[in-house]
Amino acid sequence: MRRLVFAALAALPAACSAPDYTPVRDWARTASLAADFPAGRLPPPVSEDVREGALAMREALATYLAALGRMADDGVLPYPENPFVELAPQAGRAGTGGEQPVAALGAVLRRATRQNWRAPQLRGAIGETDPSVQALVQALTAAIGRNADPNEPPAIATARAQYSAIIVRIGEDHALLRARASDITDEDVVELVRAAEDRLRRAMLALPRPSIPAAGPAP
């Protein structure tokens, strides 16, 4: 019994000094919700392929961000196989270069699950995935713009523009996490991440909620 007490006491300093990634977790969860926001489900006035490709990229981005939040919370990831095997070719349908970054992110999630990446591996994971995240953000925003109809209703045009701006912001915030990964728990960086999460949450809440059909006939 005494040995167990001593062992528990010896472990206390390490537990107390463990990095707190709560701000990163909160940002990632908010970013995942924002990426998955219904404003991303726009009717296909121009191309069914572009719309379906954009939806696949949207799903991949939201899933990756949710996984990042889970890792920041020291949780175990549930992807023993690449979760984006089917999404990657679907993302390619948009013709904006989304297939490769979606496949790359899926491969990382598979490896992270099999190697049991958790909070201690968070910084490395952010650094490894950022190029793919940036490529995916670029491909998704290009698809959103490509599928716009100049004559679409103002409510839909507004939703499209604001949703696209949120995706760009997610990319910028993720780049910040990568740039400051080495000191991500320092007080000044924590404040930056919290401010980024607050801006993202406000932008998401400001999105209009028009009655947008989930699908429609392609011309």
From TrEMBL:
Signal peptide: 1-18
Keywords tagged on the record: Signal
Domain of life: Bacteria
UniProt-recorded name of the protein: Lipoprotein
Organism encoding this protein: Falsiroseomonas bella
Lineage: Bacteria, Pseudomonadati, Pseudomonadota, Alphaproteobacteria, Acetobacterales
